[in-house]
C-alpha cells in the first residue's frame, strides 16, 4: 500500500465539479474545517472528517441537547434534522454536515416554547427527558408536513426513538394535539421574575423554580377557580394551583422546561473542557484470571496518556455494595474477574488522544477459568464457590411461614401447581452512566447521574479512603434509573482518576459497557402450589424461588427477602410458606429493578390463580375479589392491615371493563379462526420503602429574606416527578403557593439526605418528611406572629402577611435575622416509617404502607405465528391520594410499558444481547391505549393519605398478559418473555395433544 | 497513518480504490456501528461526494438504482408495482432516521442474513454493478452476496449501481416477522412477486430472508404456484411446497424450528397479498 501523502491533492474536488454544499473538506488523517449551519447560525468546526456529528454538536459546539444513547442508530436519542430530514447524528460523519443546515432541540424554541414543546409539558410527555429532544425534533419534522397527524402517522414518525419512562401514550397525545398549543398573540405574557429558571441549569447550583401557569386542559379535577390567575412565561401555561390546593393538582412538572428546550444537564452534558477522558478495561470473560504487563511502558508509548490505574492504586477499601453487610464488589478487580464486563483497569488521557487510542496492545494477559451461569449448576454439589465465604453459592435467602400450608393444601378442594421461569431484564435507560469528577481543594466532587447520592458518597469515600465529608456528590439530571443507578458504577472510577491526577476526569459508558457491567432484573426459577376450598377461598400456598443474583450481591438480599413477603399477592392466604434464594453465578449482577423480584413472583401466583378459578368454575376476576385483602385482614407476615387496603376497590373498578372486554373477545373469536383474542387480569401489592429496615428521609425548608420558599428537595427525580410531588406536599403543609417555591437539589453538600429513589418510597417517606417540615415551618411562623393554627399565610414580596379573622400581621422578612443559609425561618424534619423486624418465620410488620393495583390486558394472538398484538390495558391503582394525577398516570403508563417488555420481548443474554438491537424494549408501536383508573383509599400513615406507586404499576402487567394469552390460546407460556417462538411452540404442542386425544 | 478521501467524481474514486485497501463510507448506518468506540485504522473512502451515484434512472433495459440512493429516495420514487415489496421493505429498514441516509447498495454490501432489502431485490432479479478503474461487471444478486458478511467485491471494486431488468412485471408484497413493531431485526421476512395472466399465475418469484446465511429464492414454491388460479388456493399449494433452500439457525430472535414453521405462513401471506384482493369465497377455498 502506498504511503499516505500529506497533500493528497488527487482527491481534492476538481474545481469544475466541486459542489459548493460540500464545503471545504480537506482530506487526510488530520482535521478539516467543516462549515455548516446549526439552528440558523453559521458555524465552522475543525475536526477529523469522520467524527460523528453527534460528538461535534455536543463537544465542539456544546449543544448537549442532542443525546447519545447507543452510538448505533438503535435508540434514536441523537436525532437531529439535516436539511430538514431526521437522521441519527451518531451515524453521520462530520464531513456530511458540510454545507448542510442542522436543527437540534435547541433550535425549536424561539423566545417562547414551540407549540409542540408546550404540548409535551402539558401532557406530561417528558419524564426523565433524555429521549425528549429527539422526539421533539422528529415530531417537529412530522408536524411541518402533517399538521394534524393520525396516531399511526405519529408512531411511524417516532418509531425509531426509544423511550423507557413514559410508555409513549402521552407522547402520542402531545404530538397529535400540538396544534392546540399554537401560541396566541393576544395573551399578555409577563416576563417571569429574573433568575428563576431554568432549574438545574448547571447541575451544581441546584436551584429549580416552581413556575407558574393553565391552558387547554381541564380534566384533572382541579377547577379553574382553584388556580392562580394565568401567568405565562415562555408562552407556557404552568397550571399553578392556588395556595392550599397543590395536592391533587397537576401543574406542569416544576423541572419540565429544560427537558423540552435541551437545557437539561444529564450525566454526560457538563464535562469540563480540560477533563481527562477515562476508558475502562473490562473482562471479556465470565470468569478469568489476569495479570498486567508493563503498564507504564505501554502508557509512555502512547502520546497523550496520563496514567493507567488498577486495583493496586485504590487507596481505600476496594469493596463496595449497597447493603453494607453484603458488600463484596471491587471497584477494580484484583487478580481475577467474576463476570464479563467487570472493570479491571482504567486508562486516563487527553481527550483527543483517547479517541485514537488503540487498546489492542494493552498489556494484560487473561487466563480463562471455568464459569457457572445457571443457578442449578451453582447449587450443584462440589460446584466451585464464586465467593469463598458463601457456601453453595447461596448469597442469602428469605423465608415467610404462616399456619400449616401442607395440611391446608392436602385438604383443599382444588390445588394447582406450576413453575415459571423468567429472564435477565436490562433497565435500558436511554442515558448510559455518565459523569465527571474533580478536586475542589481537598474535596472530591463527583457530578454524575444517580438515584442515591448519599449512598454514592459513602461507597466512593470508602473505596477511595476519604472521609465522607471529603466527597461531594452532585447529582445531574438522571436519564432513567429504574433501580440500576442505585448502585455506584463510574463514581469510584472517575473519582480515583481525579484523586490520583488532580485533574478533572470524565467518563460516559458506552451502551455496551452499560449493559455488560451494570445490574439486571434477577432471572427467577419459581414453583408454587396454591389450594382453595370449594367456595373459592384460597386456603394455602407454598412458593419457592431461585433468583440468579449474578457475580456480586448488589440488591440480591432485598429480592430474596421481598419475594416471600409478597408472593401471596394481595390476597388473604392463611397458610403459607415461601422461600426466596439469591444464588451467585458468573452472570451479570442482578440488582434492583422496579419491583425487586415481586414482578417475577407475581407471574407465578397470578397465573396459578387463573388456573384455580378455571378449576373451580369461578369467573377469574370474581375469584380475586373473593380472596383479596380487606381492611382488618392479616398478611402472610401476620401484619394486620387496619385501614387503607384498596385492592378490592381496584378490582371492583375493573368489573365493567372486564365484562366489556370479555364480550368483545367473544364476539371477535366467534368470527375468527386464525387470530384469537384474550383477556387477562392480575393484581399487585407492594410495601413502600425498605423491608423492616430504617429508611429515613430528611427535608429542610425555609423562607429566604426575599420572600421565596427554599425547599431542599433531596429526593432525586429520575423522571418520576419527585421535584414536583414533594414540593406540592410541602406547599400545602406550609400553606403557601407552589409558585413561591425554589428547589435546592440533592447535592450532598447542599441538601440533607432524603434517601434513595427506590422501593416506591419517595412520595410516601420523603413526602411525609416534606409534610412534617412544611407544617413545622408553618408552626414557627405562626408562633412568631403569635397567631393560631387557623391563620393563613401569604407572601407579599419580601414580607409574609398573616391573617386570622379580622386581624392582619405583616412580617417584613428583611428585618429578621438571617441564618448562614440565608433563611429567616427554617424547619428540618425527618421521617422514618414505623416497621418491625421479621422473625425467623418472617412474621412481623415489614412495611408501614402498601399500595395496590390491578390491570386487565386485552390482546390478540396470531395463532399461526405466535405473535401478540396488544389491544388495551386497563389499570386501576390505589395510590391513596394522587398528589399529582398527571404524574401518576405517567408512572402507570411507563410501568406498564416495562411490564409489556418483560412479558413479550425482553431477554438479556450475556455475550449476545449487549446492545439495543438484539435486546428489544417496546417501541412506540408496542404500547396499546392505556386507560387509567385512579383509586384513592387514603392511607393513615402516608402524606395526605398517599401511597407509593412507582413499582406497583409494573407488577400486574406481565401476569395479566400471560393470562390473556392463555385465555386466547389455551396455552400458558411458562418462560418469559413470551416470544413468538415460545407461544407458537405452546400452540403446536397443545394442538398435537389434541390430535393425539382425538385419535385415541 | 490512514487515509481519508472524499472524491467528487467516480473516476477519482475508482482511481483511489486502485491504490490500495479502503473501507467505503456511504450512509454510515453500518459503518459506525461496526466501528463502535474503536479508533479508525483503515483507509476510508467517503463516497458521499459522488453526486452521480444517487438516484434512480431508467435505461431501455433496466431500472438503475445508483449506489448512494437511500431507502427514502426509493420510497419516494415512482416505480412499477413489482417494486412494492422493496418499497415496503424500505419502510422497515431501521427507522426513518436510518432510511434517510442508508443506501440500498450498502444493505447489500453489509451482507447481513437479515438485510431487509435483499428479498425484495431477489424477486426483481436484480443484479449488482461493480466497477473498478479497469473494468465493469454485473453480477446477479445471488452471485454477489456469498455468505454471512461476505460479498464478491474484489480489491479495487465498488458497487456503483443495482440494476433491475425490465419489465419488472407483476405485483408484489413484503411481510416482515419481528418481535416488536418498529426498529427490529427480522425473525424472518418474505418478498413475493406474482405475474397473473388471465386469472392464473404465470410467473412467481418468492424470496426469504433471515432463514439462511443469505436470503434465498424458493424455487419449489415458485414452481408450485405456476399455473394456479389466483385465489385462496395459492396458500394451500404453499403449505405443501418444498422449501429446501432454507437452513435457519436458532438465535436470540427465534428458534430454527419456529422459523421454518412461521416462514411458510408468511410466504403464504405475502403471496396472497401480492396476488391482490380476493373475495371471501376465493380465500375460503384455501
Structure overview:
The complex is a heterodimer of chains A (1000) and B (286). Chain A is α+β, with helices and mostly antiparallel strands and 1000 residues long. In chain A, 26% of the residues lie in helices and 22% in strands. A seven-stranded mixed sheet of chain A has the order 11-13-9-21-18-19-20, sandwiched between helices. In chain A, strands 2-1-5-3-4 form a five-stranded mixed sheet, sandwiched between helices. Chain A has a five-stranded mixed sheet with strand order 6-29-28-27-33. Chain A is globular. Chain A starts with 31 loop residues before the first strand and ends with a helix. Chain B has helices at residues 10-17, 31-35, 71-76, 84-90, 96-99, 104-110, 117-122, 141-144, 219-225, 233-240, 256-275, 280-284; strands at 4-5, 23-25, 44-46, 56-58, 62-66, 127-131, 136-140, 145-147, 150-151, 158-165, 171-177, 188-197, 200-209, 216-217. Chain B starts with a strand and ends with a helix. Chain B has two domains: 51-165, Uridine Diphospho-n-acetylenolpyruvylglucosamine Reductase, domain 3; 171-285, Enolase-like, domain 1. The longest helix of chain B is centred in the last third of the chain and has 20 residues, at 256-275. In chain B, strand 6 (127-131) and strand 7 form a beta hairpin. In chain B, helix 10 (233-240) packs antiparallel against helix 11. The chains are: A alpha+beta (1000), B alpha+beta (286). At the A-B interface, strand 4, helix 5 and helix 23 of A face strand 1, helix 1, helix 2, helix 5 and helix 11 of B.
Amino acid at each position: 500500500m502506498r504511503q499516505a501523502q500529506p497533500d493528497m491533492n488527487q482527491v481534492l474536488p476538481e474545481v469544475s465539479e466541486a459542489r459548493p454544499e460540500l464545503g471545504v473538506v480537506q482530506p487526510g488523517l488530520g482535521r478539516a474545517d467543516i462549515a455548516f449551519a446549526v439552528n440558523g447560525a453559521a458555524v465552522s468546526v475543525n475536526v477529523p472528517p469522520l467524527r460523528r456529528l453527534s460528538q461535534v454538536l455536543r463537544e465542539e459546539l456544546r449543544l448537549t441537547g442532542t443525546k447519545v444513547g447507543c452510538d448505533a442508530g438503535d435508540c434514536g436519542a441523537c436525532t437531529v434534522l439535516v436539511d430538514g430530514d431526521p437522521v441519527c447524528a451518531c451515524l453521520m460523519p462530520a464531513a456530511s454536515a458540510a454545507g448542510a443546515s442542522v436543527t437540534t432541540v435547541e433550535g425549536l424554541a424561539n423566545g417562547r416554547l414551540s407549540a409542540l414543546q408546550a404540548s409535551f409539558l402539558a401532557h406530561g410527555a417528558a419524564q426523565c427527558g433524555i429521549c425528549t429532544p429527539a422526539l421533539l425534533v422528529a415530531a417537529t419534522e412530522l408536524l411541518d408536513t402533517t399538521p394534524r397527524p393520525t396516531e399511526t402517522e405519529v408512531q411511524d414518525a417516532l418509531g425509531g426513538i426509544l423511550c423507557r419512562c413514559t410508555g409513549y401514550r402521552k407522547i402520542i397525545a402531545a404530538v397529535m394535539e400540538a396544534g392546540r398549543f399554537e401560541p396566541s398573540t393576544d395573551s399578555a405574557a409577563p416576563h417571569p421574575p429574573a433568575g428563576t429558571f431554568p432549574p438545574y441549569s448547571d447541575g451544581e447550583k441546584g436551584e429549580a423554580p416552581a413556575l407558574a401557569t393553565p391552558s387547554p386542559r381541564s380534566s384533572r379535577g382541579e377547577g379553574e377557580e382553584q388556580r392562580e390567575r394565568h401567568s405565562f412565561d415562555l408562552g407556557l401555561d404552568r397550571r399553578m394551583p392556588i395556595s392550599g390546593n397543590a395536592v391533587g393538582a397537576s401543574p406542569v412538572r416544576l423541572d419540565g422546561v429544560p427537558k423540552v428546550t435541551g437545557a437539561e444537564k444529564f450525566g454526560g452534558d457538563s464535562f469540563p473542557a480540560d477533563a481527562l477522558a477515562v476508558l475502562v478495561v473490562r473482562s471479556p470473560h465470565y470468569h478469568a484470571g489476569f495479570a498486567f504487563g508493563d503498564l507504564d511502558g505501554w502508557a509512555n508509548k502512547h502520546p497523550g496518556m496520563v496514567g493507567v490505574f488498577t486495583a493496586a492504586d485504590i487507596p481505600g477499601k476496594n469493596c463496595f455494595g449497597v447493603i453494607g453487610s453484603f458488600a463484596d464488589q471491587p471497584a477494580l478487580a484484583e487478580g481475577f474477574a467474576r463476570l464479563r464486563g467487570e472493570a479491571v483497569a482504567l486508562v486516563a488521557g487527553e481527550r483527543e488522544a483517547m479517541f485514537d487510542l488503540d487498546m489492542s496492545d494493552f498489556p494484560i494477559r487473561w487466563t480463562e477459568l471455568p464459569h457457572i451461569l445457571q443457578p442449578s449448576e451453582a447449587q450443584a454439589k462440589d460446584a466451585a464457590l464464586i465467593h469463598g465465604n458463601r457456601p453453595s453459592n447461596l448469597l442469602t435467602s428469605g423465608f415467610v411461614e404462616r399456619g400449616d400450608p401442607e395440611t391446608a393444601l392436602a385438604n383443599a378442594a382444588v390445588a394447582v401447581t406450576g413453575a415459571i421461569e423468567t429472564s435477565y431484564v436490562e433497565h435500558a435507560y436511554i442515558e448510559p452512566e455518565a459523569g465527571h469528577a474533580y478536586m475542589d481543594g481537598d474535596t472530591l466532587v463527583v457530578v454524575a447521574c444517580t438515584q442515591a447520592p448519599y449512598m454514592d458518597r459513602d461507597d466512593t469515600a470508602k473505596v477511595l479512603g476519604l472521609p465522607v465529608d471529603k466527597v461531594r456528590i452532585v447529582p445531574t439530571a438522571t436519564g432513567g434509573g429504574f433501580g440500576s443507578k442505585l448502585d455506584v458504577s463510574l463514581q469510584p472510577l472517575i473519582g480515583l482518576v481525579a484523586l490520583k491526577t488532580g485533574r478533572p476526569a470524565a467518563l460516559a459508558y458506552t451502551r455496551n459497557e452499560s449493559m455488560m457491567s451494570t445490574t439486571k432484573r434477577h432471572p427467577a426459577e419459581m414453583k408454587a402450589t396454591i389450594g382453595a376450598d370449594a367456595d373459592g377461598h384460597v386456603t394455602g400456598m407454598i412458593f419457592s424461588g431461585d433468583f440468579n443474583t449474578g457475580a456480586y450481591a448488589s440488591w440480591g438480599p432485598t429480592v430474596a427477602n421481598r419475594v416471600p413477603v409478597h408472593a401471596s399477592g394481595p390476597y388473604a392466604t392463611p397458610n403459607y410458606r415461601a422461600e426466596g434464594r439469591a444464588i451467585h453465578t458468573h452472570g451479570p449482577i442482578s440488582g434492583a429493578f422496579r419491583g425487586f423480584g415481586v414482578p417475577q413472583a407475581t407471574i407465578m401466583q397470578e397465573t396459578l390463580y387463573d388456573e384455580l378459578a378455571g378449576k373451580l368454575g369461578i369467573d377469574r376476576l370474581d375469584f380475586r375479589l373473593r380472596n383479596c385483602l380487606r381492611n382488618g385482614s392479616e398478611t402472610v407476615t401476620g401484619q394486620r392491615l387496619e385501614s387503607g387496603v384498596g385492592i378490592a376497590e381496584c378490582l371492583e373498578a375493573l368489573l365493567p371493563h372486564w365484562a366489556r372486554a370479555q364480550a368483545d373477545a367473544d364476539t371477535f373469536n366467534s368470527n375468527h379462526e386464525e387470530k384469537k383474542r384474550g383477556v387477562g387480569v392480575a393484581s399487585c401489592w407492594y410495601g413502600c420503602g425498605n423491608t423492616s429496615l430504617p429508611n429515613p428521609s430528611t427535608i429542610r425548608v425555609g423562607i429566604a429574606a426575599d420572600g421565596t420558599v427554599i425547599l431542599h428537595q433531596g429526593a432525586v427525580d429520575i423522571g418520576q416527578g419527585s421535584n414536583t410531588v414533594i414540593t406540592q406536599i410541602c406547599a400545602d403543609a406550609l400553606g403557601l403557593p407552589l409558585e413561591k417555591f425554589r428547589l435546592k437539589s440533592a447535592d450532598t453538600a447542599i441538601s440533607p439526605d432524603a434517601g434513595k429513589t427506590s422501593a416506591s418510597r419517595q412520595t410516601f417517606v420523603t413526602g411525609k418528611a416534606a409534610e412534617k417540615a412544611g407544617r413545622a415551618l408553618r408552626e414557627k411562623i405562626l408562633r412568631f406572629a403569635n397567631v393560631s393554627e387557623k391563620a393563613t399565610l401569604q407572601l407579599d414580596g419580601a414580607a409574609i402577611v398573616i391573617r386570622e379573622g379580622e386581624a392582619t400581621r405583616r412580617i417584613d422578612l428583611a428585618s429578621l435575622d438571617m441564618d448562614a443559609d440565608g433563611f429567616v425561618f427554617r424547619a428540618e424534619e425527618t421521617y422514618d416509617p414505623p416497621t418491625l423486624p421479621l422473625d425467623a418465620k418472617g412474621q412481623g410488620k415489614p412495611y408501614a404502607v402498601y399500595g395496590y393495583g390491578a390491570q386487565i390486558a386485552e390482546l390478540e394472538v396470531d395463532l399461526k405465528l405466535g405473535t401478540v398484538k396488544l389491544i388495551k390495558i386497563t389499570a386501576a391503582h390505589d395510590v391513596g391520594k394522587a398528589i399529582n394525577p398527571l404524574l401518576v398516570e405517567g408512572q402507570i403508563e411507563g410501568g406498564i410499558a416495562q411490564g409489556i417488555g418483560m412479558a413479550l420481548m425482553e431477554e438479556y443474554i450475556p455475550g449476545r444481547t449487549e446492545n439495543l438491537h438484539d435486546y428489544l424494549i417496546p417501541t412506540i408501536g408496542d404500547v396499546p391505549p392505556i386507560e387509567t383508573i385512579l383509586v384513592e383509599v387514603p392511607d393513615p400513615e402516608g402524606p395526605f393519605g398517599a401511597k407509593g406507586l412507582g413499582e406497583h404499576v409494573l407488577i400486574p402487567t406481565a401476569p395479566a398478559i400471560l393470562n390473556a394469552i392463555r385465555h386466547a390460546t389455551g396455552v400458558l407460556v411458562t418462560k418469559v418473555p413470551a416470544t413468538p417462538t415460545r407461544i407458537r411452540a405452546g400452540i403446536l404442542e397443545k394442538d398435537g395433544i389434541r390430535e393425539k386425544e382425538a385419535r385415541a | 497513518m490512514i487515509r481519508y478521501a472524499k472524491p467528487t467524481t467516480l473516476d477519482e474514486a475508482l482511481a483511489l480504490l486502485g491504490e490500495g485497501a479502503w473501507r467505503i463510507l456511504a450512509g454510515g448506518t453500518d459503518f459506525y456501528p461496526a466501528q463502535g468506540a474503536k479508533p479508525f485504522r483503515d483507509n476510508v473512502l467517503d463516497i458521499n461526494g459522488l453526486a452521480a451515484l444517487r438516484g434512480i434512472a431508467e435505461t431501455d433495459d433496466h431500472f438503475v438504482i445508483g449506489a448512494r440512493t437511500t431507502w427514502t429516495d426509493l420510497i419516494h420514487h415512482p416505480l412499477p408495482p413489482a417494486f412494492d415489496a422493496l418499497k415496503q421493505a424500505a419502510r422497515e429498514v431501521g427507522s426513518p432516521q436510518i432510511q434517510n441516509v442508508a443506501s440500498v447498495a450498502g444493505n447489500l454490501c453489509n451482507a447481513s442474513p437479515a438485510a431487509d432489502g435483499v428479498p425484495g431485490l431477489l424477486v426483481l432479479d436484480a443484479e449488482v454493478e461493480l466497477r473498478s478503474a479497469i473494468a465493469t461487471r454485473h453480477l446477479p444478486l445471488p452471485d454477489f452476496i456469498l455468505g454471512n458478511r461476505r460479498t464478491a467485491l474484489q480489491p479495487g471494486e465498488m458497487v456503483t449501481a443495482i440494476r433491475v431488468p425490465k419489465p419488472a412485471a407483476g405485483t408484489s408484497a413484503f411481510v416482515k416477522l419481528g418481535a416488536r413493531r418498529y426498529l427490529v431485526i427480522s425473525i424472518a421476512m418474505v418478498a413475493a412477486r406474482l405475474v397473473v395472466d388471465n386469472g392464473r399465475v404465470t410467473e412467481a418469484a418468492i424470496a426469504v430472508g433471515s432463514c439462511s446465511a443469505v436470503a434465498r429464492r424458493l424455487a419449489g414454491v415458485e414452481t408450485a404456484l405456476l399455473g394456479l388460479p389466483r385465489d385462496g388456493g395459492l396458500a394451500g399449494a404453499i403449505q405443501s411446497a418444498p422449501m429446501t433452500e432454507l437452513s435457519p439457525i436458532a438465535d436470540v430472535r427465534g428458534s430454527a424450528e419456529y422459523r421454518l414453521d412461521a416462514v411458510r405462513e408468511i410466504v403464504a401471506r405475502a403471496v396472497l397479498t401480492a396476488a391482490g384482493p380476493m373475495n371471501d369465497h376465493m380465500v375460503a377455498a384455501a
